[in-house]
Design a protein that fits this description.
The complex is a heterodimer. Chain A is α+β, with helices and mostly antiparallel strands. Chain A has one domain: Phenylacetic acid degradation B (Ubiquitin-like (UB roll)). Chain A has a three-stranded antiparallel sheet, with helices on one face. The longest helix of chain A has 12 residues. Chain A starts with 11 loop residues before the first strand and ends in a 23-residue tail after the last helix. In chain B, 69% of the residues lie in helices and 2% in strands. The chains are: A alpha+beta, B mainly alpha.
Chain lengths: 99, 316
């Protein structure tokens, strides 16, 4: 939440880093930059000073839509009683192999 | 029971169960405010902390020392940025935090209001000041607020290099000429007590500690952390062949800890209140950097907006 009176504050970008090929980009934090190009340059200095990354994504924070923690029950609880989505729910003889 | 009280109880239950609190979760207003204050002041400390060390970059005695110090100071800038970002998740803007620093409303660690008079001070700062900071920060990796804890994990990973580069400087001087050893001893003499002050007032004079421990913002009290620091550091000073400037310091077999002398609390409060040797100089340096950088920030923003418009024009 930026001070609306200060239009000169650089926007915030969320930074995602791929630590090495074969792994996904992971959220590492955020920073301010005038634009996306500068955000990548700054992310290089702030988040990869010790070879922590091979690739950087930057996303303006205001473009991210997040679920509301208050809706967590509605969103995630329905999965709690669906044990039949897990392999151990299905009872098979133990002598059976490779299944 | 009002719904507010109920929410606070639920919140405390989550903390007690060891759950982390994330920015959009409900939290008591005081928890939010305490975090904004603590995280932003921690960030300010990292940023102001660059000043005493920056003083010696151009005069480092060798290229090896210079690249090490340069990398350390750059890390401090990075640590400030991680922490400012963590505070921003609680609804305060970066500019508001700078404003609080520049007007003196927000504090930063008093240790940075002491001058760096000789090269040995850079060694003493890395060894003692970063050593004290590590003890505090290792505790904070388990703090209850998620973004703060995550920032601390990153910071702690990087911080141990700082302490080692400082100790290596001290080791070089302590094993050097008598004049060099004298320099190292002088730096230890000047930085010992201010380092102990970094852990804050005595527990009985620290009214916020109980609430901070209850909310798992702090996991140990100021005096516990200070004792831990003394116990770790005394043998390191002995290894250097330097003596700690405290005639009352001695091992207490019964307690299993070192006993040590009383901090000059008058000096402590004087520096906190802005009357330390370098308070004015440090703050003036930050304000100058901010004001003299204004045109750069504005130009970058204007250029970004112009580029965006050009992009739209081309697309139409």
């Amino acid at each position: 939440m930026s001070d609306p009176n200060n239009k000169n504050e650089w926007p915030i970008f969320e930074i995602f880093i791929r630590s090495k090929n074969g792994l996904e980009h992971r959220h590492v934090g955020s920073l301010h930059a005038a634009d996306a190009t500068m955000a990548i340059e700054n992310a290089r200095d702030v988040y990869t000073r010790r070879q922590e990354g091979v690739s950087i994504w930057v996303v303006p924070s205001k473009e991210i839509t997040a679920s509301n923690p208050e809706d967590a029950g509605e969103l995630f609880e329905p999965a709690e009683d669906k044990v039949y989505r897990h392999p151990t729910f299905y009872e098979l003889p133990i002598e059976l192999k490779h299944i | 029971m009002s719904p507010e009280i109920n929410l606070e109880e639920q919140f405390q239950a989550r903390i007690d169960a060891g759950q982390k609190i994330e920015p959009k979760d409900w939290m008591p207003e005081k928890y939010r405010k305490t975090h904004i204050r603590q995280i932003s002041q921690h960030a300010h400390s990292e940023v102001v902390g660059m000043l005493p060390e920056g003083n010696w970059i151009t005069r480092a005695p060798s290229l090896r020392r210079k690249v090490g110090l340069l990398a350390k100071v750059q890390d401090e800038a990075g640590h400030g940025l991680y922490l400012y970002s963590a505070a921003e998740t609680l609804g305060i803007s970066r500019d508001e935090m700078y404003e609080q620093l520049h007007t003196g409303k927000a504090k930063y660690s008093s240790i940075f209001n002491y001058p760096t008079l000789s090269w040995a001070d850079i060694g003493a700062i890395g060894w003692l000041v970063d050593g004290a900071a590590i003890i505090n920060q290792v505790m904070l990796t388990r703090t209850s607020f998620g973004p703060y804890a995550r920032a601390m994990v990153r910071i702690c990973k990087e911080e141990s290099f700082h302490q080692r580069q400082g100790y290596e400087i001290m080791l070089g001087l302590a094993k050097g000429t008598p004049e060099q050893k004298e320099m190292a001893q002088d730096a230890l003499n000047r930085f010992w007590w201010p380092s102990l002050m970094m852990f804050g007032p005595r527990d009985e004079d620290s009214p916020n500690t109980a609430q901070s421990v209850k909310w798992k913002i702090k996991r140990k009290t100021n005096d516990e952390l200070r004792q831990q620091f003394v116990d770790i550091t005394v043998p390191q000073a002995e290894f250097l062949g330097l003596s700690i400037p405290d005639p009352t310091l001695q091992w207490n077999e019964e307690r299993g800890h070192y006993d040590f002398g009383e901090i000059d609390w008058n000096e402590f409060w004087q520096v906190v209140k802005g009357n330390g040797p370098c308070n004015k100089e440090r703050l003036a340096a930050r304000v100058d950097a901010w004001e003299e950088g204004a045109w750069v920030r504005d130009a970058a923003m204007a250029y970004a907006e112009w580029k965006e418009k050009e992009k739209i024009k081309k697309a139409v």
